[in-house]
């Protein structure tokens, strides 16, 4: 069933068959989506229910216009309402440098770097990435965990395949996000712009320009960048990015949705620049051309 939109409530995102109780894995996927989208009703892309009907969803993913990255620290940057320039990302009562925490690190560590340099390094990490694949462990606010595989191809294409017994898939094709249940054969659609994962999905990102930097600090063995995204559905989402001390690897992100529900995604075995089959990000909107394409992909 395509195009149905459900309320993102505290229970399971998906309406299961009568008498069937939602599995813990489904509840955890729901928690992840709550972190991405918030917990409010919002119209989703509305593809035609019948092949003959005119498509209401975009015929093809639209590539967002690439924006030239700006230096994280520039005298000409003017903060917008509620935003702060990169050089002033840390609170005013914070030290000018990120204070080292824990055991001493290598000379290449960013732990003692200026906040603007930390942001510049984070921007370089994301903007230098074309594809990314690896494993993830999703931790809900109540501590429940579920693993899976993450696949990314910029701009805008993202896929989460959850480990068994979960039947869930989350696929972004550059325009929409589809939440699929292979067992129930259902698909729910969302606008990709509703997610706070801009740091992963955009072709080019400037964290200080595209989000609001609220803090840069050290955790034992790494660096934490705290951000706010005021453009997500339901209000402001809070995002924390965790890097290693040299800022060569993104180890996890943590999203707190506008209602205060928190989801953590831990990453491992990441590979950047690996060739990825673009058909993994295909979404069937229910149109005749989509069905034909799906048959072609399955036949390969």
TrEMBL record:
UniProt biased composition (Low complexity): 59-94
Keyword set, alphabetical order: Lipoprotein, Signal
Pfam families the UniProt entry points to: LolA
Region (Disordered): 38-94
Cited PROSITE patterns: TAT
Annotated signal sequence range: 1-27
CDD domains, sorted: LolA (cd16325)
Name of the protein: Outer-membrane lipoprotein carrier protein
